[in-house]
Amino acid sequence: MPASLTHRPYTAVLLVPTGVGAAIGGYAGDALPVARALAQVVDRLITHPNVLNGAQLYWPLPNALYTEGYGLDQFAAGEWGLRPVHQNRVGLVLDQAIELELRVRHLQVADAARATLGLSLTDYVVTDAPLGVELRTAASGATWGTIHQPASLLRAVEKLKDAKAEAIAVVARFPDDPGTEALQLYRHGKGVDPLAGAEAVISHLVVRTFQLPCAHAPALSPLPLDPSLSPRSAAEELGYTFLPCVLVGLSRAPQLIDQRTSPRAQDIWADQVDALIVPETACGGSAVLSFSQSATQIITVKDNSTRLKVTAEALGIQSLTVQSYLEAVGVVAAHRAGVHPAALSPNLPAIQPLGQSREQSS
């Protein structure tokens, strides 16, 4: 939907925090339908890999900007801007801990992306030490993790940067633990993604250090067949790797610029964001707090419950709460049109003298 000649592009940000058990967006790319719908009522949709990644499933959204979480935080704070691109040259980092057969599977994905999708990749780099991923779970049930050899990851990325990589895909070997209760709950659409928090740690480290777009795909052994698998988790069980969506997303991810960069007309900054859509109980993140200090309309969604309990109301943030993403799409469409949501209700109250409450007038 193009912007009119008399109005600037309408820009929305869609956030679904990673590893917090979001009812929508907490599984295998299951917030992608939300992004597809929102993309139809805005000129530019800014969102992150957790929303758009569905393992081997993805959907091309020409007006979506695929931006890693740390980069989004910096963008929201006004420290970084986003510069849209036609194509990035993607560099691939493989964890030394990945077994030979599994490594070959991932390299075949990279070659398929080049041959079938026409993506541009550098040669790949294997880390000089196993990254040593460990998974953790917080008391709230949210997941996070650590890597024992972060310097090895950064050395590998440095080599790719020297090879003119413009975005970085990382594949780290994650622990196999198919019998855990957490994984079984996740596969049946009831738990928290046990990998997501650790994935965020990896991509944040790369983006913070190099200011390059980055996303991560875990390397895992295939799981045994489960006939009762949840549809929301099914995308992760279609093949041997989660890498295809990462390569596609990074191929068009906007570059991360700062105030020292010579400006261009297409650059996007936080003060151009019209609306932010976020789960109702996940309002404590850096990006939400930054946008709350601006004119951005914050829309919180009740249906998307999480393991967190941080609401806009508890933080003193002004927001508009809706029940569902379907309602959020309507609110964004009205906001873009300059129509107050109350005008779409049959119970619009009469205008009142300034300072007189509705209760006093009734």
Walkthrough of the structure:
The chain has helices at residues 32-39, 49-52, 69-76, 100-116, 150-162, 181-187, 196-210, 243-251, 286-291, 325-337, 358-361; strands at residues 11-14, 44-47, 64-66, 80-83, 89-94, 120-121, 125-126, 133-137, 143-147, 167-173, 214-219, 255-258, 275-279, 297-301, 320-322. The model has no long low-confidence stretch (mean pLDDT 93). Helices cover 29% and strands 18% of the residues. The strands form four sheets. It has a six-stranded parallel sheet with strand order 3-2-1-13-14-15. Strands 5, 6, 7, 10 and 11 form a five-stranded parallel sheet that branches. It has a domain at 11-258. It has eleven helices and 15 strands. It has 362 residues and is an alpha/beta fold.
Beta content comes to 15-25%
Query: Unreliable segments (pLDDT under 50, ≥5 consecutive)?
Result: none
Net shape: globular
Largest sheet: 6 strands, parallel
State the strand order across the main sheet.
3-2-1-13-14-15
Class by SSE composition: alpha/beta
Mean pLDDT metric: 93
Number of helices: 11
The tally of beta strands, per DSSP, is 15
| Terminal residue distance | 42 Å
Q: What can be said about this structure in brief?
A:
Helices cover 29% and strands 18% of the residues.
Keywords:
single chain; 362 residues; alpha/beta; five-stranded parallel sheet; 29% helix; globular
